[in-house]
User: What shape does this take?
Amino acid sequence: MTSAWDLDSRWRQAVAALAVDPDQGAADPAAPIRDDSELTGEAVRELHDAQLMSRQLDLAAHWLRSWNEGYHAVSSAGHEAAAAVAWASRSTDPALLHARSGGFYCARAAQVPAADPAADPALDVLGALVAAAAEPFAGGRCPPYGSRALTVIPASGSGASHLPRAVGLAFAIERAKRLRAASALDLPPDSVVVCSFDSAELNHAAATAALNAAGWCGHTGLPLPLLFVCHDEGAVAGWAAAALGSRPGLRHFSADGCDLLDTCRAARDAVDWVRRRRRPAALRLELARLMDRTVGPDIDKDPLLASARLLVESGLAAPGELLARYDEIGWQVRAAAERMAAAPKLASAREVTAPLAPRRPLRVAQAAAAVAEPDARARVFAGALPEAAGPLSLAESVNAALRDALAAYPQTVLFGPDVAGGGGSGVTAGLREAFGAARVFDTFPDETSTLGLALGCGLAGLLPVVELGDLERLWHALGQLVAEAAPTRFRSQGAYGSPLVLRVSGYADPAGLGGYAHRDNGIGALRDVPGLVIASPARPDDAADMLRTCVAAAVTDGSCCVFLEPAALRHVRDLHSDGDGGWLTPYAAPDQWSAGHAPIGRARMHGDGGDLTMISFGNGLRMCLRVAARLAEEGIGARVLDLRWLGPLPHDDVLREANATGRALLVDETRRAGGVADPLLAGLAAGGFAGPVGQVASEDSFVPLGPSASHIVIGEPLIEQAARGLLDQPARSVPAG
Assistant: This one.
């Protein structure tokens, strides 16, 4: 691997050897550097300075690593041509960058006023590399790049997972104008989204999804002001050019990244084309990686040398002057590196996790009670208000709550495959007719693109409510939640968020309807995502209240929420016997919303029996209530606690209700491994609960099709058997207080 010292010494030698024309007079910095270029000599100097800053930051990162002071070093050496893309765009154009974007970041920093702290990329980048708590953007939690002042959106930086979100942001800029919604980023209406990635990432599924979605928008004429910037290292000759140049709906530009004038020309053409036409394009820069995984640097492909040669040949600088400037910036960076290395680090788990998932329950409760004006509400319900409709099913309650949310929050958009036509089980029926195609619309059936669209909408100030269909489909796009949505606040100390309500049909059916393809019952992957809110309503009234809470949390705290709707309960009407209507509930009128508010992380108790506490959620709630009714016929009092929220879990409620009876039965319809019961058991133990505890969970298997599902998924006989077994054991509880 090429060392930093080797690259530094070869560059110095090459610059010192540049020939100076003795007959070349002093050039005018304000004039175009060449007749065929719009770049002035001063602009070339500024771009060269940005490139030098990026190179010196790379060298400092390696120096810090040699002293065990740096914790991240991905070199941008050879990729500094990206500075031209920053020059061609505006500091207000949102940018999502990959890990080798130092040139772009340093040039973008030079575009903001010098008094702004963001104008010093050295403290920003180096602070991130050494995990300094004083690092202004992420507080030392993450590697660069991100900045509110520079309109740089923090991204994973690898695997192209940020590309779908860039597509979503470009879409949302145009859609927000159509809806007259205020942009959370305060973006000018003609903004262009810039998104960079490495040519190796072109082969990632996320890149394929994003490029396909952008091309589809371009092909159909849907406005999408997005510029993909591909850093093409040519690992497979011609592949990136062929892959980008052949995509329908995507305009292709290219440039030699070692030629500053050619790169600036192509970047200006690409940015101006996207800005004017509001269509997507791809700019491919031919580059070389000069550090990391190379045997030796090809100095002829060094963009810093090319811009230095341009300055010397144009009479704007002498080799010695350029070397002096290189050392001047180098000393500035080295001083910043020493300063940041000595800066304090985050000192506790509380400090580290502070921006992860803020909870302001009072504000959320207030926002959950927000309601449209009576006339407007009557209009969207066509005069048939749901509170006057009698008891509703879960699907009907969710439909009414969605309608209320769309009416109360004009920035709300509802989308997903087939949503306009009613969505899964008809839950979204009639919403497109009530609110129009700009707010309720279909996306093509690609879960990665749909989630990326949602994340971009959230950045732009819209409130996305998304339906993805079945839980199994979410796994196709889980990376968008894990790599992009959930960590956004963590990466930016709350400067950016991922407000989202993601509706998914989940859980299994003992009758085996749909099998695993439509009835997945494993949610361990979701519960493993830090900060993610997971709502799991079972009853219709809870579904409406909890959906309002999720919408309010997204609006107030920028929360990312998954709303799991039990597919088997959407249209269930009865509880104990046919025709009893026990699973239908009235829809609360707006003046009752505050009283019925469902706070995040709080469970709901059903019954007050003193012999046994059954703890469950989703389909398990209905089964437990039926078992409790049969036990009551024998004089056995069982209470049933509905968890409602699976992230965060209501541990305090579980411990309190377990202590109330001295016996606890955990009924978990998800798979035993990675399920919900294990953390509940740990919480009971940590809380000192000493009574008998039972656990019922589904088998560690995918859900089969047909009646064989009853062997895998929990059912009432198993729950009742476990309950009776606990009743044979003496109850023990910890007295309150």
In short: The first helix runs from residue 4 to 16. The CA atoms of residues 411 and 462 lie 5 Å apart. The first strand starts at residue 95 and ends at 96.
